[in-house]
């Protein structure tokens, strides 16, 4: 879990941005088929994103986690959806639970100053919810680059992050296999931010290539994927497909916002 900035320290602009992001988030959990579907399947894994947990000492570090909660009551319940200002290159992140904590105590960061529309927030939130699903379902070892790459591939593909509209906004106008190209590109950028990669572009690209076919084909909890995936009328979690990269539980998770380059603006 991470802790949001105390409200009394917010600037007027930060308050407006936070409240706007909070309003959009609430609307998406009520009206978005994608967000509601992911929330349902997270809840089935005992990782309900809308429940609150007792406030604990800061257990994650990120560009936003230097904010402390010394002025918050220790007993005040803490949201798993953290809305806070972030550096200019990111829109969101996922903070995995500690090895000694239940996976339900993970959290999602939504960057209030980098979310430009409700549809952008929907893609960002969906992306991070796929990571949370993987963390709860497969007990991902985030220090294992193959595990991390697999989750990044799935999140970029399933969330709408690589849909035609988003790619057009990024001025990536290709048509032939553009969805796959986008997924690979964004997965590589995220792997580069993993300390285990040490910023080595060749390692990042090779790792993504090694797991791409299996992980791109793994659409759980969806039945299938398109450029803008939505659940079928009878969605189900597939229990036996494509478990190539998620096979072991690890006690060596990286306790940080692993996806700070995950929902990149560009």
From TrEMBL:
Superkingdom, natural source: Eukaryota
Top enzyme category: hydrolase
* Membrane protein topology class: Peripheral membrane protein
What one GO molecular function would you report for this record? Answer: metalloendopeptidase activity
* Composition-biased stretches (Low complexity): 59-77
| UniProt entry tagged with the keyword Transmembrane | no
The biological processes this protein is annotated with in GO are: mitochondrial protein processing; mitochondrial proton-transporting ATP synthase complex assembly
Question: Where do the record's region annotations for Disordered lie?
Answer: 55-79
Q: Keywords on this record?
A: Hydrolase, Membrane, Metal-binding, Metalloprotease, Mitochondrion, Mitochondrion inner membrane, Protease
Signal sequence bounds: none
Q: Where is this protein found?
A: Mitochondrion inner membrane
InterPro entries recorded for this chain?
A: Peptidase_M76_ATP23
So what EC number does this one have? 3.4.24.-
Q: Which PANTHER family match?
A: MITOCHONDRIAL INNER MEMBRANE PROTEASE, MITOCHONDRIAL INNER MEMBRANE PROTEASE ATP23 HOMOLOG
Q: Its biological function?
A: Has a dual role in the assembly of mitochondrial ATPase.
- Give the family this protein belongs to, as stated in its UniProt record: Belongs to the peptidase M76 family.
The protein's name in its UniProt record: Mitochondrial inner membrane protease ATP23
Q: List the source organism.
A: Melanopsichium pennsylvanicum
């Amino acid at each position: 879990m991470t802790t949001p900035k105390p409200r009394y320290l917010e600037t007027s602009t930060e308050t407006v941005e936070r409240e706007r992001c909070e309003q959009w988030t609430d609307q998406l959990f009520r009206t978005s088929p994608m967000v509601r579907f992911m929330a349902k399947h997270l809840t089935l894994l005992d990782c309900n994103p809308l429940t609150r947990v007792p406030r604990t000492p800061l257990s994650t570090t990120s560009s936003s986690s230097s904010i402390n909660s010394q002025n918050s009551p220790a007993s005040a319940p803490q949201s798993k959806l953290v809305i806070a200002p972030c550096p200019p290159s990111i829109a969101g992140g996922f903070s995995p639970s500690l090895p000694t904590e239940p996976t339900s105590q993970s959290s999602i960061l939504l960057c209030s100053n980098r979310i430009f529309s409700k549809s952008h927030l929907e893609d960002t939130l969906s992306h991070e919810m796929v990571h949370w699903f993987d963390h709860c379902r497969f007990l991902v070892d985030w220090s294992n680059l193959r595990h991390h790459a697999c989750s990044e591939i799935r999140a970029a593909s399933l969330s709408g992050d690589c849909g035609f509209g988003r790619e057009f906004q990024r001025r990536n106008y290709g048509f032939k296999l553009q969805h796959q190209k986008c997924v690979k590109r964004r997965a590589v950028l995220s792997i580069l931010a993993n300390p285990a990669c040490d910023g080595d572009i060749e390692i990042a690209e090779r790792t993504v290539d090694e797991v791409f076919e299996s992980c791109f084909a793994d659409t759980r909890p969806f039945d299938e994927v398109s450029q803008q995936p939505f659940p079928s009328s009878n969605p189900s979690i597939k229990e036996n497909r494509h478990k190539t990269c998620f096979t072991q539980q690890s006690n060596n998770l990286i306790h940080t916002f692993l996806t700070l380059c995950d929902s990149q603006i560009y």
